[in-house]
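Researcher: For the annotation table, I need structure tokens for Troponin I2, fast skeletal type. Please keep the output clean. Sequence:
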Amino acid sequence: VSEKKPKRYPTLTKWLSLILQIAASWIEQETKEAEAAKEAYMAEHCAAPDLSGDQAALMEICKKLHQALDKIDEERYDAEAKVTKTDKEIEDLKLKVVDLAGVKKPALKKVRMSADSMLQALLGGKHKVTMDLRSNLKQVKKEVKEEVRHAYILAAFLNLTKQFRFNSQR
């Protein structure tokens, strides 16, 4: 009697190793292509120097090559200086943006505090200052308000009676 063995699926580590192998082959292929592109560029733009001739001609060729190298180095230095300058400007502008945005202040909670406790918090515990703000308020007598109210009611009543008399005479 032959029993069928269950089919085993590759584990996660096998899949990961396979993916890594494929990625490594891709990277290797890209480096080879980059080297080939460099060689093609150099062959196209930099022809092999003619080394046949006397020593004076070879010295002249060397001087020309050194001058070309110096010129290229100066251009590279200028380009690097320009890049560092723009990088610094970018950093300064980023800092300005952060400064302009500012720090968002949280909403303050309402706190009930008397004037005495507020002064004590501001001045500290050493100074004893009491401030009764209610004493400075103008005293309003309730009786005066009631008298004014009665006067308004009386005026309204008299006004109504005048109208009633005028209407009844017609």
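Researcher: And a one-line annotation?
Model: The helical segments are 12-45, 55-101, 115-123, 142-169.
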